[in-house]
Write a structure and sequence with these properties.
The chain has three helices and five strands; from the N terminus they run H-H-E-E-E-E-E-H. By secondary structure, it is an alpha+beta fold. Strands 1-2-3-4-5 form a five-stranded antiparallel sheet, with helices on one face. Helix 1 (about 1-20) runs antiparallel to helix 2. It is globular and about 35 Å long. The two termini are about 20 Å apart.
Length: about 90
């Protein structure tokens, strides 16, 4: 897990160097990697999903907004931050 987090952080740095400061469309990969790091640090299993990040094979967390849903239901709910999401719904 620590190796995965280190690689994600390196990818974030590389992505920041690649994009222009005013290029807000391409900051989504950076947000995805930052969110994945936060979830991994809270002990979650994280996989890629075309709607966002699949957490513990049950929840989908949107990358661009603080929203989540149960996989297969797609009723989206808001969450305050990753720590709150994990403590309320994962733990």
């Amino acid at each position: 897990m620590e190796e995965r987090i280190r690689l994600l952080r390196e990818n974030i740095d590389a992505e920041w160097k690649r994009i222009d400061e005013n290029d807000y469309i391409n900051d989504n990969p950076i947000r995805r990697m930052q969110l994945e790091i936060e979830l991994l640090e809270h002990g979650c299993q994280v996989d890629q999903d075309h709607h966002g990040l699949l957490v513990n094979q049950k929840f989908i967390v949107a990358v661009s907004k603080n929203k989540w849903c149960v996989k297969g239901k797609y009723v989206w709910y808001r969450y305050k931050d990753v720590q709150t999401f994990v403590s309320k719904y994962i733990s």
